[in-house]
Design a protein that fits this description.
Chain lengths: 489, 176
């Protein structure tokens, strides 16, 4: 005690206390999160906040009967309904002018886990995180999810999302059964052999064919994988991925392409998750780790030029350091997202994803060099990251993006919000989309609609069938959103 | 004049600091992303104030207390706060060192002030003045706390300047 009192009299001791405390606080300053969603005053937005819109009301989904009543009423009084999950879609998919928004986040109970059959029945407002928490103790894992667990099941199935898995096909194909609240207000149990083919339209249907109430998903074992990483040139990737798919013992995979000036679209790093024959019941679900450092690194990369080269080098080293480590399937499916937060006023970061057939990848990347500049340091439109994932051919849904085996390039883009800056971004993204179409590719629809209606139609030739079936199944156009209004209506 | 300023400057500074406190809190709450961070900002201020207090107390030559630097330093911090744009993404990283600087300066000033003969008299006066001023301010519509903080910063800079001149004047005869 005496020593303590003496110490507290020493300025150097008090100074050190301040320095240590400040360091601890600095390390723990939370990352500012973008403000978006259903509670932004009188206007609602989604993840980008780009399309603020007035809605009549937001209804928290709590029970089936209430939702059914709302849908039936809307059929009578001409009201429009949109469905919202966690609102990570970026083009007004979850709301409509003066409409009613069904906020599904409160409809999130896990209903049943069948360990023997390896299935889970869960309400559609649950997030992947909720599902993982429920199945992890049973040694089970999901077959297909995005690379993060921050989305709802309903939202993910409605865009037919994809991620790092390369073995189980599309997300839609992992659904055994679902309960649907149809546009006419019926509650139906739908199986895969349903003669009305509801699944074909509801999955990848952007909330336009009713409300997914619950689904029964197929699960798999929570396998333990060994991480294998490597560096490649972009022109080697096509043969690399073919070899991986056909001959290697790899369960999951993704890659990154350099957008740093000195290695622009030439360098790649690949990350594979290889089977080990081991399964895991004990490893806990990982929490977000090293968020401050990752954010700092990304912020450095955001400066462009030499600093982007530095960022790329750091990423490569970091990814390389993972080589040989083990990780569970559940943990591969929940990578960090908070570090991507970006809240600078007057600027925005958006995602776009372009799919190209695996065999067209090399030429596509070469041609892409003519569309976007290698060094965007002084440009308004900046590309910060490109991640590549494999999306297996899928012709089950109507608006299908993988008409053959595709590679999806997820692009993180930053641009300004002045009218001319948005126009410039739009023009560049449209050129990029044209190039993608020329190579037999498509673009992903959950993101902001920079593309034209014509580009949409060329990318999704199924759109006419989609529209016809929408009229048939929802003749009063009860389910509506800004995405559909822009592209189809 | 120099005598008067020796008497009144510390009073202006203490009163000002208490009066500005509510506005400063509002500002700090606005820039803190969470309550936890808000509380940590205060904790860092407090630790730094303890440090500043002991720096003065253990100082050998108390005749040279460099008060003008303390006033000007505090003034500059408040003016800086006035210039910062609120929607700045890494604001918390800027606010934290400012809290520390402010804490050290305030602790140092407090230690110096409590050494002065006028300290106890000032304490009574300052409570009364603050009371009346706050009643006055209650009739004012707050435009933005930042405006008050900046004005107070300027006032402190003037105090610093004044103190500097006063000190110069006192020093001159000593040197002759
Ligand atoms: C940071 C980030 C990373 C991403 N990573 C990936 C990725 O790795 N892979 C990928 O494929 N996608 C990815 N996406 C896109 C993401 O998968 C979609 O935006 C997905 O829709 C998000 O789910 P959500 O719960 O936020 O859905 P929301 O945005 O809330 O809704 C999306 C659509 O689903 C509909 N909907 C929601 N719930 C229901 C329901 N219960 N019934 C019927 N319709 C419903 C909505 O009406 C809307 O049209 C990413 C997006 C972001 C912002």
């Amino acid at each position: 005690m005496q020593i303590m009192t003496e110490l507290l009299k020493k300025p150097w001791f008090l100074g050190s206390l301040v320095v240590i405390f400040v360091a601890v606080v600095l390390w723990n300053i939370p990352i500012e999160k973008r403000k978006y969603g259903l509670s932004q005053g009188s206007l609602v937005t989604d993840y980008t906040g780009l399309l603020p819109q007035h809605v009549e009301r937001v209804v928290k989904a709590e029970n089936r009967d209430d939702m059914q009543r709302i849908v039936k009423e809307a059929n009578r009084n001409g009201q429009k309904i949109s469905v919202a999950g966690l609102q990570h879609s970026q083009g007004g998919h979850t709301y409509y002018k003066d409409g009613v928004v069904l906020d599904m986040r409160t409809f999130n109970k896990v209903l049943e886990i069948d360990e023997r059959k390896k299935t889970i029945r869960v309400e559609a407002g649950a997030s992947w995180e909720d599902v993982q928490e429920a199945i992890q103790p049973h040694g089970l894992a999901l077959k297909v999810t995005q690379s993060q667990s921050i989305f709802t099941i309903g939202g993910s199935l409605s865009v037919n999302a994809h991620g790092r898995d390369i073995r189980f096909g599309s997300m839609a194909e992992t659904v055994k059964e679902m309960t649907l609240l149809t546009p006419s207000g019926e509650i139906k149990n739908i199986t895969r052999d349903d003669p009305d083919e509801w699944m074909k339209y509801v999955f990848g249907g952007y909330g336009l064919f009713g409300v997914i109430l619950d689904v029964t998903l197929e699960l798999t074992e929570n396998d333990v994988y060994t991480i294998h990483t490597g560096n490649l040139k972009t022109d080697q990737y096509e043969s690399y991925i073919n070899e991986l798919l056909n001959h290697r013992n790899t369960a999951m995979h993704y890659a990154r392409v350099s957008v740093a000036p000195s290695t622009f679209l030439d360098d790649m790093v690949v990350v594979n998750y290889d089977y080990t024959e081991k399964q895991d019941h004990k490893t806990v679900l990982k929490k977000e780790q090293g968020v401050q450092l990752s954010k700092l690194a990304l912020d450095v990369g955001r400066q462009g030029g030499d600093l982007e080269d530095l960022f790329w080098g750091t990423q490569k080293r970091y990814i390389g350091s993972l080589d040989g480590k083990e990780i569970t399937r559940n943990n591969v499916m929940r990578s960090e997202s908070t570090f991507m937060e970006y809240t600078k006023p007057g600027r925005i970061e958006v995602l776009q994803e372009f799919f190209v057939p695996v065999h067209a990848y090399k030429d596509y990347i070469n041609d892409l060099k003519q569309v976007i500049p290698a060094n965007d340091r002084n440009d308004d439109f900046k590309v910060h990251n490109i991640t590549v994932r494999y999306a297996a051919k899928e012709d089950f849904t109507t608006l299908n993006y993988a008409k053959e085996d595709m590679l999806g390039l997820v692009v993180l883009i930053q641009h300004g919000l002045k009218e001319e800056e948005i126009a410039n971004a739009t023009s560049l993204i449209q050129s990029w989309t044209n190039l993608t179409l020329e190579h037999g590719g498509t673009y992903y629809l959950p993101y902001y609609r920079y593309q034209t209606k014509e580009q949409f139609r060329s990318s999704y030739p199924g759109w006419e069938e989609f529209e016809e079936e929408k009229l048939r199944k929802d003749p009063n156009n009860v389910f509506q959103n800004m995405f559909y209004e822009y592209y189809v209506k | 004049m120099s005598h008067k300023s020796a008497r009144y400057l510390p009073l202006v500074v203490t009163v000002g600091q208490v009066v500005i406190f509510p506005y400063y809190i509002i500002w700090l709450k606005q820039v803190s992303l969470t309550f936890t961070l808000f509380a940590w900002f205060f904790a860092s201020f407090s630790f730094a104030a303890a440090w500043g207090y002991r720096i003065y107390q253990t100082k050998k030559n108390k005749d040279h207390s460099y008060l003008f630097i303390i006033y000007a330093g505090m003034g500059s911090v408040y003016i800086l706060i006035g210039c910062i744009k609120n929607s700045y993404e890494f604001l918390p990283y800027v606010v934290l060192p400012l809290q520390v600087v402010l804490g050290v300066l305030q602790g140092y000033f407090r230690a110096w002030h409590s050494d002065q003969d006028t300290y106890h008299l000032h304490a009574v006066h300052h409570y009364l003045i603050v009371g009346f001023m706050m009643i006055g301010f209650s009739f004012l519509k707050i435009i933005s706390p930042v405006v008050f903080i900046t004005i107070f910063g300027l006032l402190l800079l003037i105090c610093g300047f004044w103190e500097f001149i006063r000190r110069g004047k006192l020093n001159v005869p000593k040197k002759v």
